[in-house]
Amino acid sequence: MEFATLADRADEIEAEPADLETASLVAALFTEAGPQLATVARFVQGRVFPAHDSTTLDIGPALCHAAIAKAAGHNVTPDDVEAELARVGEIGAVAASYEFGGQTGLGSFGSGGRDGLTVAEVDDELRALAAAEGAGSEDTKLDTLFGLFNRCSPAEAKLLARLVLGEMRIGVGEGTVRDAIAEAFEVPVASVERALQVSNDYGLVAETARDTGTAGLDAMDLDIGRPVQAMLAQAGTVTDALDAWEEVAVETKYDGARVQVHVGDEVRIFSRNMEDVTTALPEVVEFVEEHVDVPTILDGEVVAVDDDGAPRPFQEVLKRFRRKHEVDRMREAVRVELRAFDCLHADGEDLLDEPLTARHDRLQAVLDDEHAVSALLVTTDAEEIAAHGTAALDAGHEGIMLKNPESTYSPGRRGKNWLKRKPDVETLDCVVTGAEWGEGRRAELFGTFRIAVTDGDDYATVGKVATGVTDEQLADLTDLFEPHVREESGTEVTFAPEVVFEVGYEEIQSSPTYGSGYALRFPRFVAVREDKGPADADSLERVERLAARQ
Ligand code: AMP
User: Fold this and answer.
1) What is the pLDDT of residues 138-177, one digit of tens each?
2) Does the active-site annotation cover 253?
3) Backbone dihedral region for residue 394 (phi beyond 0: left; psi -120 to 50: alpha; all else: beta)
């Protein structure tokens, strides 16, 4: 296909305001593209490489402006191009405003004139340009780009400038390309969608749809070494999770960097953006080589740890991630480890459509190291979830993830099946007005504390807190409260209002249970506020305000 034809089609597509019509125009373009279909399917999205390929053109605005200026003639400088960009606001229009074709130079193929660029040629040139490395590569890039611009008509120059800067602006998003492939080759959108998820390559999917139809698309598999988009999480609460699912799978939320580990003939590690970060993480590679024996794709997090294996802050991981130089020196300074929480492929089987619990079972089976596999607690018990959250925070992790145990793996989706539990927004300072004796092992200790906020001269109860306290702390708290006991009846004890707790919570609900009319959802002991007396505790008015703001 001529590059000029693609440029004309791109103009028509840009001029079409309706989404449906846009998809139809793109579909017509795909049918017309012939052998260049894969390239065209990428170019319309401003891509030269498939999404799973982290190769970049590495052409910044300055280089592009310089190439345009050079092709535009002696009296145009890169500054002029920039000034024009500031005036017009868009590089395509700027590139289209010059008359190219008169310049000669290394990249102008000796002819100095226009001689019908093809899509294939532009693709080849840009790929060669991306491969240029080392000293002199900037000059090579500038020359190649100048050579291409020099052969462009205004419409082609507009397309080329936008393509190399990845700013297509023709209104063709991923959904449009998906719908266009389905329309052009008469295949179901769902098959296209699934094929895109497993391959991350619009070009390959378009070709497969055309050449082998639905059967071909449905037969597309994950490929070890070709990363897929990571499944993402939404913010959510324990209440959301318990309301939505029969059971909740709870996991530690690690504060590290997301990785997808592909174990084939060799181990490759990809970042959340599908960038290959293998060389930066040699000990993860070594670990996986030692502990995984079958072809596998793992999803997880790389965390920085101290000598005891306790988590270190996220910033430490960043010192290692993507590092290209001095990897060995930094390996000494910052120790990293893998925490795997999902398994997308194991021993020849794609697992995307399996439920989370089955994938986790496979993960445990393929990764022979208990420490590196994130524990999955499946429960319906809110208290247990809250306790897990506190334990995770206490151990220095970011919090917890709540996952639907039945859910399949949806690459690239920020769906409702994975929830990152919102951290407590604020804490409340509450007066402790009573307690209940514990049970069993804790019978000699106070178990649950009644907490209240001030209401004028009185106290209004807002909940009971039992979570977040260790056995040792409970013993100390029992000693602390014993002098304040006013009354006891059964297991219930009333205290003189003296001690103030700082309490975390997930939300404030209106509730008839307590005198205040409010109840803290999932209250969590944070600390004794030794510096505060009951008069300094939070008021019912503040609780009302916080509740109204939720
Ligand atoms: P956020 O980056 O705040 O959107 O939170 C989602 C991220 O948490 C994921 O992309 C992962 O990198 C990270 N994460 C940490 N632990 C887990 C886990 N157990 N399951 C899923 N994601 C996790």
Assistant:
1) 999 999 999 999 999 999 999 999 999 998 989 999 999 9
2) yes
3) alpha
Q: Is the CB of 249 under 6 A from ligand 1?
A: no
Structural domains of the chain in order of their starting residue, each with its CATH number? 47-165 (1.10.3260.10), 232-421 (3.30.470.30), 427-549 (2.40.50.140)
Cβ(251) – ligand 1 distance below 6 Å: yes
Nearest to 284 by CA among 264, 257, 307, 261: 261
Q: How much is the pLDDT for 441?
A: 79
Mutate to test the pocket of ligand 1, among 250, 420, 421 (most ligand atoms within 8 A of CB): 420
Kindly report the backbone phi and psi dihedral angles of residue 268, in degrees, each rounded to the nearest multiple of 5, phi listed first. Answer: -125, 140
User: pTM for the whole thing?
Assistant: 0.77
For residues 434-454, average pLDDT: 91
Is pLDDT at 110 greater than 60 in this prediction? Answer: no
Which has the closest alpha carbon to 358: 419, 408, 418? 408
- Would you state the pLDDT for residue 443? 84
Contacts of 339 (CB under 8 A, 6+ apart): 252, 254, 256, 300, 301, 302, 303, 372, 373, 374
